[in-house]
Every structure is written in structure tokens, then in C-alpha cells.
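TL;DR need C-alpha cells for one chain.
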Amino acid sequence: MSLITWIKTPFSLVLRSQEISFVFSRHGLGGTLKSLGVELGKRGVASVTRNGAQITPLDAVFGKNLALTLSELGPTFIKLGQLLAQRPDWVGEVVSQELRILFDRVPPIPFKRIEKILKSEWGKEKFKRSIKAIDRKPLASASLSQTHRATLADGRDVILKVQKSGVERKVTLDLKLIEALVAIIDPLYPKLNLKLAFSDFKQATLRELDYREEAKNIDRFQQNNRGFFSNSSVVFPSYEKTLLTAKVIVLEPMRGKKASELKSNSRLAKRAAFISASAVLEQIFEHGFFHADPHAGNLFFMEDSGKVGFIDLGLVGQLEEADRIKFTRVMLAIVRRDRKELAKSLYELGVPSKRSDFAKFESQIDAILDDVKKIGVKNIKINRVVDQLFRAAHENQIFIPNRYILMIRSCLMIDGVAKQLDQKSSLAGIAGPILAKSLLRAYNPLNLLRSLSK
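>> reply
TL;DR here they are.
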């Protein structure tokens, strides 16, 4: 590291911490930080006394202000807000709901800046040789990137996904500040296990900054779906290897209708619902490598082939074999309404503390499954059951690791998409055979022998 860089980094951290402090204060959230024992300002991130601090209630107004604050602070904080939106056990259901606005589109940047990034990444000559035309109007704008339709010099229509300028530096800086903040807050609230959650968040965010990682994800999804027993009704976009860089990826466009454009409960919509839900469940329980953002805008139905295409493959989740087996047991217990197995498997899935009360937890699980029994498995709302399970775990100080949260979020998201397409769709009903197959494969003696021979 050069002397100039060494001097600039601490200076930049101080300036950024002051900016964050100002934005939090302007939206009325400065008091909340102090109530947590944290101060952002001239000294950077620091611990402060909690004596006399008035705790700001975590209500809907707080949630709205927090969403505005995180949106204004840029990509890292938008990502952080999206994570908090998935953790009602941390911030409460009301605040969680308000933060879900951060999943919507963000304002685009001018086309001239996109063009400048492309020329910088490829070089001016390669840009001229490779691109015939680019639609100046963006197809979509997200916290990290912007996409545009384009035509290559050879006449192929493509989608350009371009990382916004300055994003990498800002994200790296923000992650350092958040890491310092977590180091202060974690000892105050040990049962939240914030260090582990932040580690997962940091690694996932850094992977999204390098589009070569997204290209690897595409390769792996395609490879996983070439298996004999894999879902042959699912496709993934190809990419142009010669134009791939850390900040630009050129993708094949999906020829079909977005799932959000299909007429609800039509024959096509019902098929799309079943294929999409089956594919995500297979990715989780069979491959241990899954699309972590399967909302309706990222799914295309191709009527000619009857296939569903997945796009935006930068955010993925990965699970070890042991993780898959644990979560499979949880899901099967819900489907079978097995009270003892659900309590036991969920307890083992999480990280209990010394104060965790298994007997109390088990009785709460009994009450949740009583509700499931009353309405029937085919009619259960997965999101409601999961929220109840999380609340029970939280009340009994059982920490659910963030890698499972990502997986559960994918299940909830695809369940919501499937229900929009087919009102009678049941994720629990679709999951049964896939879960059973996953457990059979996990305990297959041949698979055990293969793993021992490696």
C-alpha cells in the first residue's frame, strides 16, 4: 500500500462516517444509534454511554425513516436494509415491512456515464468494434448496476449489465465502517450473533461486485441442470465470454413473458408456477446452490418451449450437505405436522444459547402446528408459518444463521410468485416429493461410499 493510499483511507472513513451520521440525524435516527451505545462523527465509529439515552421506538414511522436513510446512503446500506427486511426477529414485523420498499427499483444514472464505463472497461477501440447500438433508456436500475438493451456488431441482441461508477470503492469503505459498528454493538446484544451475520453479508456483497462471479454462477446453474434427474424445463442465459469483465457482463436476452405479465390462474400461469417452484426447491435441496432472488421480474415463461428462464444470477445461496439435510428435516416436519421432529430439527438448525428453553420452545411449536392442522397443509401460508417459527426461536434465544435466512427467503419469494400465478399453488405440496428424494439421496449407501473414496 502506498503512503498516499494509507493516508487517504482513514481520512475517507472519517468523512464517510460524518456523512452517515448527518443523514441518520437528518431523518431523526441519531437518537436510535445513541440508544444502541454507538456514535458516528468526527471520531469515526465510537462507543458512547447509554445513560440518559432515550430509545426510539421501532414503529412504522421509524421503519419509513430508516428506509429513506438507507436508500440515501447508497448501495451498501440498501443491501443492508434488504437483509434487515428479511429479519423481523431482529427489527420487528412492522419495520421489516417498511424496509421491503428497498427491493424496488432505484433511480437510473445518465447514459453518458454508462457509455464511459464501457469504454473504460473494454477500451475505446474494442467498444467501437463490439457494439452496433445501445438503447439509451435503461431496462432496469438496481443499487449496484444498470441494464440496457444492445445489439452487438454481429447482429445479436443482448443485455448489457454495467456496474455503476464508484460503487466498488464506496461499498468497500462502507463495509469497513459497518464492521466497526458491529464490533461495538455485538457485545451489547450477543444473542443476535451479529458478527456471523455480518460476515455472511460482507462476503455476499463483495461477490456481487465482480460480474465474473455471476458468470461462474451461470456456468454452475447450467451444469447442475444437465443432470439426468434435474429439471429440464428450466433454462439460464448464456453470456459473451470475450466481453466479460469485473464490472460488465453481456447476457443473452430471455425470449418470453415475465412471470409478472402472465394472466393469473391461466393454463400457462399454472405451468409456470409449478416449474418455477419446483426448480427453486430442487436448487436448494438437491444442488445446495440456489437463486437467492427469484421474484416475478427475474422469471420468464417461454410459451413455445414451455420452459421457465431465470435471470439476474449475481445473488446466490450455497449450502453444505449437512445444512441441506437439517433444513430438509424442518420442511418435512412442517409438511407431516410432526411436532417433536419439527421442534428437534429447528432447535438443531439454530444456535441455542445457555438460556434457551427447549420445553417452552416445543410447546410453542405444538401451537403453531395446531394452526397448520386446522387449515390443512395445502392451504397453509408458508410465510406465516416461518414468521411464527422465527418468533418462537427468537423468544427462546435460538439464533438462526443467516445462510438459512437466505434460503428461507428464496422459498417464501417463490411461494409468493407461485400463488400470484396459480391461486391453488401449494409450496408444501410441491415440496413433498423433492424433500423425500433429497433425504433418500443423502442416506444412499452408494453416495456415502463415494464421499469416503474422495
